Amino acid sequence: MIPIIKIFEKLFKIPKGPKCIECKSLLIESNCPNMDCPVEVASWIMMWASPAAANISILDDKTTLKLAQYNLVIHPADLYDLSESDWLQIQTMDKIKIGKIMQQLNQSKSMDAKSLLYGFRIKGMDLEMAKNLTNKFQSISKIRELKIESLMTVDRISEETAFNIKRWFKDSFNKKMLKALDKYGFQLD
Predict the structure, then answer these.
(1) 99 vs 101: CA distance, rounded Å
(2) pLDDT per residue over 155-188, tens digit each?
(3) Which of 86, 103, 118, 146 has the smallest set of CB atoms within 10 Å of its CB?
(4) What 3-state class would DSSP assign to 46?
């Protein structure tokens, strides 16, 4: 007798292959494509918290993964909306550590455009590219309005990276994050 799962797989042609440990999505080139995956969210938060971006050194891998697993964050702007009780849901937190996190979060609001752009985690964008873009165009709001051809005039920006930048700024999810960052006082202009 054939197990029901095998019949289901044949009928619906369920793709096979390695899956993400956390969310069970089918991996694409060893990467999880699910942007809601707690590992992917935690990875973005860690990039945002890095010294090259927001410089929130008190956040570590375990904390960011728990924030994502508990659905407290889905993108970096969510960090600025967390209350003390949200932070206390993470067992490794105490009021002293939360105070330090809040202090570093407030300090991070003065990030320059280069650090912001790098922290957005745009596919193909590295810190040097973010620096080149912001040196030439000065602000996030100007960069988000550029055409692909204009982006490609910047040193090291390929057509593929220019397309990824344009697509990132057009994405409704990312637009909501930018709006939240603007609300929290980040300099996007």
Answers:
(1) 5
(2) 999 999 999 999 999 999 999 999 999 999 998 8
(3) 103
(4) helix
Distance CA 135, CA 92 (A): 40
The residue written with tokens 């100007």 in the block is 142
> Tens digits of per-residue pLDDT, 60-102?
999 999 999 999 999 999 999 999 999 998 877 888 999 999 9
Q: To 10 degrees, what angle do helices 38-49 and 61-69 make?
A: 140
Q: Measuring CA to CA, which residue among 147, 114, 146, 148 is closest to residue 133?
A: 114
The reply to whether the predicted model has a pTM over 0.90 is: no
- Of 1.10.150.20, 2.60.120.10, 3.30.70.240, 1.10.760.10, the CATH number of 120-183 is 1.10.150.20
* CATH number for the domain formed by residue range(s) 38-108: 1.10.150.20
Taking the CA of residue 45 as centre, how many other CA atoms within 13 Å lie in the half-sphere pointing to its CB?
30
Task: Note whether 148 and 166 are within 8 A (CB).
Answer: yes
Residue 5 predicted with pLDDT over 60 = no
Q: Count of residues for the chain?
A: 189
95 contacts: CB under 8 Å, gap ≥ 6: 84
Integer Cα distance of 107 and 54 in angstroms: 8
